[in-house]
Amino acid sequence: MADEIVAIERALVRGEWVPDQEERALGGAVLECRDRLVEEPSPADMPPSERGLWLTQSLMLQALLVRELTDGLLPQWQDRLVSSPMLHLVQAYADAIQPVLPYAARLLAAWQASPPPTPAPDLVAREAERLRVSAVEAEQNTRFWDAHHWEEAQVAGAERAEIELALHRCGDIATVIYAAVTGQTDY
Q: DSSP letter string over 89-147?
């Protein structure tokens, strides 16, 4: 599969594949769906992170996106773009994330069943003093690290590697979709 994506990307960059209006519309629909899901409230109700989505949130987002792709977008476009590279890219994206979707459900269920406890007031006070920040900032920092450690404890090293590989593949495919939609192939 990776070779096929590289071949599509190469054809796009070389101008051998110039996506037509229908192909750009499908790619644009994928990007719009992803952007909409990112803006929706977090399905895991985790503390905000200045570093982006938590792994739990990222996997839930991927699970929702794949569901929308496989249940909505792909069936609508399959007959219209039978042998299109764009259709292949979207299908490859959905396929690439499938192996790690069970982790999304597992992490969400674990968070909902037993998230890290609220930091104790005395711990927050000590952190505020130690970091020389307000109590609000100290609590946010403590919650961040509690959530970080909680996620690390939920996913074994081999599982984390599998997840990171799948997310990386999806990112590579999303980059090609974006380039095909926008025409920005000088990345």
A: HHHHHHHHHGGGHHHHHHHHHHHHH-PPPPPPHHHHHHHHHHHT--HHHHHHHHHHHHH
Size (the chain), residues: 187
On whether residue 98 sits in a domain, the answer given is yes
- Summarize pLDDT for 65-103 with one digit per residue, the tens: 999 999 999 999 999 998 999 999 999 999 999 999 999
Domain of 55, in residue numbers: 2-182
Q: What is the pTM of this model?
A: 0.86
Half-sphere exposure of residue 132: CA atoms within 13 angstroms, side-chain side: 0
Domain count, the chain: 1
Query: What single-letter amino acid sits at 78?
Result: Q
C-beta separation of 144 from 124 below 8 A: no
Closest listed residue to residue 58, CA positions, set 68, 46, 69: 46
Alpha helix positions (H), 15-84: 21-39, 55-68, 74-77
Question: Is there a domain that residue 23 lies in?
Answer: yes
Cα–Cα distance for residue pair 133/155, rounded to 1 Å: 31
Is residue 187 included in any domain, yes or no? no
Confirm if 63 and 101 have CB atoms less than 8 A apart: yes
Classify 23 as helix, strand or coil.
helix
- Asked whether residue 39 is assigned to any structural domain, the reply reads yes
pLDDT tens for each residue of 140-158: 999 999 999 999 999 999 9
